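Input.
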Amino acid sequence: MATDYDKVYKQNRHALGEPAKEFVSFFETYQKAHAWVLDVGCGQGRDALFIARLGHRVTGIDQSPSGIRDMLKDAADECLGIEADIADIRDYLPPRAYDIVVIDRTLHMLKPDERLSVLQKLLTHTNEDGAVLIADQHSNIPAFESIFDQSEWNWLSILKQRGYLFMQRG
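Output.
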């Protein structure tokens, strides 16, 4: 049975803790200022808030109204410019192209064909020289790599380790 994250977020204000060190390391060395970042499945903003604190422009999407509400409250408290949409990622059409797309432990919640379709759609909304940062179940990574391989653009691996795949559009 799938986890009801809206219920989880209502019960615990910061349910998912801190950003993973892999994401932190990427953004600490990322050179572009004020990048456009899409956080797919943002929840309460674990990644989005950290990224916005670095001066990037973040759009978070999640289907949990409680998660979005918590993230936007924290962003307002810190005067961070985060935008958000309550949406199902299977139906979500990004309004623009992004420099970075963050997908942190979200795709595995979908059926295999849905997760690949979502990833394929998100690749088309990534700017030239943009990056897609994925954390997911290790067993899903090869299928994600196949989507990058089938893309019309050249994608270069910038991090591949158990459960992580960070790719940059070349």
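Strands lie at 36-40, 57-62, 82-86, 98-104, 126-135, 155-161, 164-169.
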